[in-house]
Amino acid sequence: MTDYFYGGQADLFSFYRLPKALFVDPRFRGISAESKILYGLLLDRMGLSVKNGWTDDTGRVYIIFTTEEIMEALYCADNKATKLMKELESCGLIERKRRGLGKPSLIYVKNFISESSEPRIQNRENHDSGTVKNATLESLKSRGIKNNQNNTDLSETDPFLSGVAAGTETEGKDDRTLHQEYFFRQFRFDALIASYPDDEDMLREMLELLVDTVCSKRRFIRIAGDDKPAEVVKAQLMKLNGDHLRFVLMCLKENTTQVRNMRQYLLATLYNAPMTMHSSYAARVQHDFKTG
């Protein structure tokens, strides 16, 4: 049975943000709730893209979010994931740029507040001379005017996959330190070590391997013999949580074959954990039922 929240315990968790406008704006009333949830996931991923500088030649931020990742995040089938993406695309909330050659599409998460596709104007004078609708919104934001709507509907997603808590000091910290802190919080690392004191060294090796990989400047990263786009690998690793590390520990302990390159083996196991953990546990349950 689940327990109650006490005091400020709710602040211990990271949350996905679903813009209130998606539920109150008449333009989006015909969109399914699942599509709105998916938009929230895509919007959350924008924090990672901004952090990594994933922008095109015109400065527009894009993300990588594959069909497999949608299936894993929403626990749905391939056709459902495809349908939800088409729904978001048809209403103009996202735009996909297909690259071919087996590469994942670039996804542009559209700004649902403004319907204009013109580039944002950077100074106050041009704000005041632009179109009324866009200039009003941008002028309010650039001049620091706050109201209730700005605090709820227009709030930007938290940086770093919403992993950096409000008020956390990040200035002066390098990229590696920020990623270490992110994973430390994401895994609740102290609690994890307390639960597995005999495996502390292995857990720290996993942490360092993850930080090394997501901070890599290479365009492609090898996973189980395949060179995958670095942005895809990093996005997958950033989804890991403490349960995934427990699963990887279990796999390592049960492996009886000789591993020649432990680092590559460990990286592949971590990368595949979100896609294999649930099916592995389900297979174990079925096996236990059949064997009594």
UniProtKB/TrEMBL annotation:
It comes from the Bacteria. Residues 14-88 form the Replication initiator A N-terminal domain. Transmembrane segments: none annotated. InterPro entries: DUF6017, RepA_N. Residues 141-154 have a biased composition (Polar residues). Residues 179-292 form the DUF6017 domain. Pfam families: DUF6017, RepA_N. This is Replication initiator protein A. It comes from Candidatus Faecalibacterium gallistercoris. Residues 141-160 are annotated as: Disordered.
